[in-house]
Amino acid sequence: MNRPARLAVAAVAAGLLGSVLTGAPAHAALDVRAAQWFLGPYKIAQAQQVSKGAGVTVAVIDSPIYATHADLSGQVQKGGTTASGGPADGWGPDDPGVVHGTGVASIIAAKGGSNEHLLGIAPGAKVLPVANSTVTGNSNAQTTADAITWATDHGAKVINISLGHVGEAHDYEIEAVRYALSHDVVVIAGIGNTTAGIQEPLSPASIPGVVAVAGVDQTGSLWSGSTRGAAAVIAAPATKIPVAVPPSKSPSTYGTADGTSASTAIVSGVAALIRAKYPQLSAANVINRLIRTAKDAGTPGRDGDYGFGVIQPLEALTADVPQVSANPLGGEAPSAPASAGAGPTAAAPAPAPASGAGVPTALVIGGAVGAGLLAVLVVVVLLIVRASRRRRPAGPPGYPPPGYPPSGYQPPGHPSSAGYPPPYPPPGQPPANPPGGTDRAG
């Protein structure tokens, strides 16, 4: 049974803005670009020579967005919505309550320009605002699920979810994610921040198929505030990330962010670059590029700190990566077995004719003779197989050797490692939700 739908959902980065860059008047010159320390080490300029995300829509499920910010002007679509009683189009007023969504959107798609303006990871992409909270912060897990479905139905190719709740995913969240995956959408969510008291991966980041993002610091090591857990898929910069904010938050209209909200937005931006560069690739193969090109860190293979490793934007765009036929993170809904006569493509079986009724006699007799010959042939083949098995020499004593294949063995190039894929109930059995209670802020 579901827990009550009205459950608190908190931004992954509680207090997204660690500090404002400056308290200077809005007209004062400010070298914001120099503060974007990750642009160089993560080769963003080189990556944007390959792709800028043009033509890709990234849904930002978050607070409303202050879309009239100079760096977001023209980057935020007017066709957004609200899932929880906020602004009808997802555009927010000049209010501190829209800081989180505005910051996330700017990391993804700020349009750049001079050094006085932010450069997003995918400045060619467009943001679809899906307000999952009002300016005052009211939101819940059900509205997150509704927002995922709405974004999927309204053209999003990437969905950024920098929020979540503690505890097991609700069945309606799982179904919303499955719906998005089945419609070729990449779903990316923050794993959580220990600085907000979150000690286990948040939902929906914990749902199989979702790209769960952890955070690293300026040295490339796991950020001390990043939540850890087996759900981790990939890591990205999470500290001192410059973001756009409304004037009511800072006269300069800029601030800095610490948290996996920021790292999630960076990964969403890279996913947009990939989708623009390879429009023919499925969402599963976009995810595959992200994880196969990640720089392994921590314990070799996938681990609960970095997932498959730290994101490498340029490599994700240019490396030779084999294609996959399914999401390497799982999470796809099982195919329902076809039932006779169900659906317009199901062909009804031809009725069997009565013996001799309107059928040439030669065909009836021929069918009977053919069945007899087939039975004889089957017996002969079985005898030959049995005789060959008796003549086959036995393998040497003790073969295969003890301990083979090695524990945890995976074929070369397989992205999996110990603890992957994460445990997930069989189809039709969603995880049991914990007893009632309010989800904690994250």
Automatic annotation (TrEMBL):
The record, for Pfam families, names:
Peptidase_S8
Q: Which PROSITE patterns match?
A: SUBTILASE, SUBTILASE_HIS
Keyword flag rRNA processing:
no
InterPro entries reported in the protein's UniProt record: Peptidase_S8/S53_dom, Peptidase_S8/S53_dom_sf, Peptidase_S8_His-AS, Peptidase_S8_subtilisin-like, Peptidase_S8_subtilisin-rel
**Record's family?**
Belongs to the peptidase S8 family.
Locate the Peptidase S8/S53 domain: which residues? Answer: 53-309
Q: Where is this region: Disordered?
A: 76-96, 325-353, 391-442
Question: Membrane-spanning regions, if any?
Answer: 362-385
Q: What does UniProt list as catalytic?
A: 62, 100, 261
Bias regions of kind Low complexity — which residues? 330-353
**What's the protein called, per UniProt?**
S8 family serine peptidase
